[in-house]
Amino acid sequence: MYMSLKALKETREDRKLTIAPYLAFATGGHAYSLRFNKYKNEEKDAEIIQLYTDDDGRIKELYGDLNNYGLGPAIHAKITWIPESIWFGDEEFLITKEKLLDKKYSNEENTIPSKPSHIAPREAGRFFRIPYFITHDYDKKITRVDGFVHITCFDILKNKYETQQKFHIFTDYKAEEPNIHFTFSDIVKSS
Asked: Which of the chain's ends, N or C, has fewer CB atoms near its CB within 10 Å?
């Protein structure tokens, strides 16, 4: 009886591994062009910051390579940008737990679905929207952001998978061609 239960448990674990996705960004960095678009907010006319778009407003280039290194498909893949420190010029400001409750830094505003939302094994998802805290940097003062990106998805049996990976964002709004540079590095946590 003991051997049968042990074999059944091993079979279940083996089956779980064969359907498990494992999502992570390719390490390294890439720069992407930005465009400043007019936007009317509550206080004044402002410019939001977006990836470069054509004249019809369509994004010309998606960013990030969220790779599925697992054996099973990743269903409903999405990321949440969680900043830990923000640089305005040469000054660094730590983002406290209270500050993360502000709309600009909140999980709700900084959660972005992958395109495609279902990522097959050995395939990658990309993203069309940059983090809200960059998009709404109306004064164009952010030069760097450090933190981690929280990656979530489900397998075909609706088991949830989560990964946290370090990121660094650098902006150059004053360049001849304004740009943003995303760098992904160490995996902090995976489950």
From this structure: N
Report the C-alpha gap between 141 and 173 in whole angstroms. 9
Which pTM value belongs to this model? Answer: 0.87
Which positions ≥6 away from 178 have C-beta within 8 Å? 33, 34, 35, 36, 171, 172
Q: Give the closest residue to 48 by CA, choosing from 132, 146, 165, 147.
A: 132
Tokens representing residue 45 in the block:
């006319």
Q: Which amino acid is at 130?
A: I
Please count the other Cβ atoms lying within 10 Å of the Cβ belonging to residue 46.
Answer: 16
Q: For the segment 63-85, what is each residue's pLDDT rounded down to a tens digit?
A: 999 999 999 999 999 999 999 99
47, pLDDT greater than 90: no
Average pLDDT over residues 138-153: 96
Strands 111-113 and 75-88: antiparallel
Q: CA 151 to CA 66: how far, in whole Å?
A: 9
Name, in order, each residue with C-beta under 8 angstroms of 77's C-beta and a sequence gap of 6 or more. Answer: 21, 23, 66, 68, 113, 114, 117, 118, 119, 125, 151, 152, 153
Question: Among candidates 73, 94, 76, which has minimal Cα distance to 84?
Answer: 94
Residue 91: Cβ-neighbour burial (10 angstroms; 0-12, 13-18, 19+)? exposed
In total, the chain counts a number of residues equal to 191
- Check: CB of residue 128 under 8 Å from CB of residue 62: yes
